[in-house]
Amino acid sequence: MDFTIRPRTARDLPALAELLERQQPVSRYPAVWPFPGGVESFLVRTTERGSWVAELADGTLAGHVSITLVDDDGLGRHWADALDAEIDDLRCVSALFTDPDLAGAGIGSALLDHATQRASADGGRPVLDVVAASERPVALYQRRGWRIIATVQAHWHPGLELPIHLMVLPGTGHRPTTA
Questions:
Q1: Full-model pTM
Q2: Which of 141, 106, 96, 101 is closest to 3 using CA atoms?
Q3: CA dihedral 15, 24, 50, 140 (to 10 degrees)
């Protein structure tokens, strides 16, 4: 499968919204649908540091990923403690989804690798959260070396029983030390 990964543009948002809606019944991601606040608030986040799409040779979008800053809250402290890092150094891999018709083509893996490399590029420490019941993504992350450090309730969906795994990628993004 021939595809490239490039930065997301505003013009990509309608096609990404359609792709997100089409893949949601298959992946159950995002877990709450329709997404509160609308699809654009899921795709474009105020704490975003970068976002990318996978584009097929014919121009069709086949996936999306972003990295965001991490808040100084309970989740952020879990990740920071597990990595012995500062919260300001954490970069969360977010909004990763792909076209379900292209499952197994390596698009999700390529987007995850790209986001992880970009998160680590400035000394950042990659982290992510994933719905605990989402076995396929959890297995993908674990095959790539991510490890679960805690399972907590998703506080952004109050009143909904939604356990999420907090995951870290050990051994990435260390800032050089100087004497």
A1: 0.92
A2: 106
A3: -130
Confirm if 2 and 57 have CB atoms less than 8 A apart: yes
pLDDT tens per residue across span 93-125: 999 999 999 999 999 999 999 999 999 998 999
* CATH code matching the domain that covers 3-168, chosen among 3.40.630.30, 3.40.50.2000, 3.20.20.10, 1.10.560.10: 3.40.630.30
What type of residue sits at position 51?
S
What does the pLDDT look like over 43-75, one tens digit per residue?
A: 999 999 999 999 999 999 999 999 999 999 999
| Rounded Cα–Cα distance for residues 153 and 161 (Å) | 7
**Please, which residues have CB within 8 angstroms of residue 18's CB and are 6 or more apart in sequence?**
none
Residue type, 106: G
> What residue type is assigned to position 72 of the chain?
D
